Target: Sorting nexin
Amino acid sequence: MLSTGIFPDRLKYSEVKPIYKKGDKLSTSNYRGISLLPAFSKIFEKIIYKRLYQHLATNNILTKEQYGFRCNASTEMAIYALINNVLASLNNKLMVGGLICDLQKTFDCVNHDILLSKMEYYCIKDIANKLIESYLRNRYQRVVINDDKLNKYYSGWEQIHHAVPQGSILGPLFFSAVQALYDFTGEPGSAELSITAGEVLTVTRQNVGEGWWEGINQAGQTGLFPAAYVEEVKGSQPPAMPPPPLPEAFTDPAQQWSTEHDPWGSQGDQHQQQQQLGSQQQSCEAGDYWDDEWDDDSEGGGTQTAAWTNNATHTSGQVPKSGSAGDVSSIGKSDGKGTVGRKNFNRFTTFVKSGGESYILSAPKVSVREEDKVYIYETEKGIIWSPVTNPYKCVVASPKKESKLKGLKSFIAYQLTPTFNNIQVSRRYKHFDWLHERLEEKFSLIPIPPLPDKQISGRYEEQFIEHRRAQLQEFVNSVCRHPVLSQCEVWQHFITCTDEKRWKAGKRKAEKDELVGANYFVALQAPERPLNITDVEQETEKCSKFIHGMDGALKLLMATAVDQVKKHQGPYKREYQRIGHAFSALGLAFREDDSAEAIRVTGDTYCEIGKLFEEQPKADWEPLGDVLHLYKGIISSYPDILTVHKGALQKRRECEKLAADSKMESSQLSDVVRRTDVVSYALLAEINHFHCERTSDFKLAMQNYLKEQVLFYQKVCKLCSVKQTCVFDVACYQDNLGCSFGEEDARLQIIFLLFYMKHQKLITVD
Model:
């Protein structure tokens, strides 16, 4: 079957049994048809399914929004994604709308010719496509009905001209494939190029990696896109623009090789390249995006356009911390000294995208100034970054609304004041966004703290501005305490530059920085002691498990914090005010009695307690939530960081194997091992810093939370005490235990004091 491309005709016959659901039994719409296929057919279908699904999944042909009929996906995940998006929009005060479509008889409406043409687009050709066509064509079915006496009645055999086979494991997969769009949306900030159906592209390289091509669209944008999404245009029309010229030093590849043709498309051409390509820091359009007088803070920055240059030594890839990717085509030189073996692209792995493979195999020839060097030390407490000699802080304060163009354009400016010079600088949110992009691009093994969430509508509300300021302060505090981030040039420029001309010059200098991504490893000065690869793997695995556990715990506590804020400002407040209004009504009814005023004041007290509940989250839950937001963003970067490091260790093992087979010189292997150790030292230093900061931050956050909780209940107790003292006669009102309200209030004060002292002891570390 697999060699001939012919599916057995005897296995194409199915019987449809109507199963009654509910309602009128004489109405055909109240029956569900169940298709029964030959049992032996399912064996062949399983074989075809495994190969087809592996091809579709490996090449990312099925859109990520396709939740049905896929492994590790379900309708529950689709509902979760929908609810998450809706809640995120509502939290940001955005308009939310939904468009729900229901396809009737979905499996029955699939056209065989369209399905086969889609398979052709997905590189399922020749014998594989012929087998799928043979599976779909010349299928027959008949209806079988059982009466009450278990007699069977058969219809005649009818040929199926469309629809995917029901009752088959291939049916849902075929439906998913035919529903896949030809439009491809690249990840923001990456080297991927977004394309739309019908768009004409100029292909410049077809040997990027398995299933990917490089090309130029009609707008002049260059990037990578799936080869399965495009087809060659037959005709003599010239392209929209000529392809870029070849590098001056370009030569044909010395070696090319290809595997035997695989009709399922699981193998792609792989070529050894001679020229190392890089990616520009930013396109000309994006370079001055905030110099435009009509820019918008709500967008948070410009859109970067990926481009390729002929710089043989520049590689500007970075770890995709926020769904972004950097250089994916950095290829070593072919002088036989710096390059080791053929580079494996492995379907756009994170290690390749980060530029890590290029660094491990051949150190970039980038000059490093002394002030740019970063030292790593091995101490009794572990591997650490070089400590900051002059620590400092930076205060984010005085957010205010400013305008330009005579009031046509308005924005919020935040004032930053570092303690080492006390000179204030003004920065907008989009300036922070630009800084964040620069830091992410430069430091591939350092998780950059997250910025506050963006907001489009109502972003000048006072509460929102203050909350954003508090979260920006968390971001600034985290950067200031980091031994590497706090000393880097782009950060120092950000918090100190006050002159507009010097600001723009420094901005462009940062965008042209060569020490980014994998190139930054050249600036690291690590200890000479070789690391044991097994010990390193144990440490990284331990970190990976910790991050996984912490991620789940943070999500749970963040959800709890959000829930508590809503309850304090909603149900808790309403309940106390409802009680207060009830007592006030009783006091009004007793207005002729001596106790009327006391009961009315009791009602007012409950209403004031309700107001205390409404204001309390600003003191405890919201500050704790800001810390959780900070660390949720930090730990979200660790999976990609650990993947980059894992790729470096894997490349080292490959080189060790080549050396064992006498295919690599020992000097080359020594260089590879040394560069791998540099990456490992940097990762271990960052993990150590992360744990130190985590311990300190959460200790302080918990102390503040518990302190504010105690103060809150002390306020409630004091409020009750004052009201009782002013209204009730302590000598006349005794509780069931025989103590007066004044005595009970004293007991409550002692209880809260003991509670506070207890928690202080629990969270205080010597």
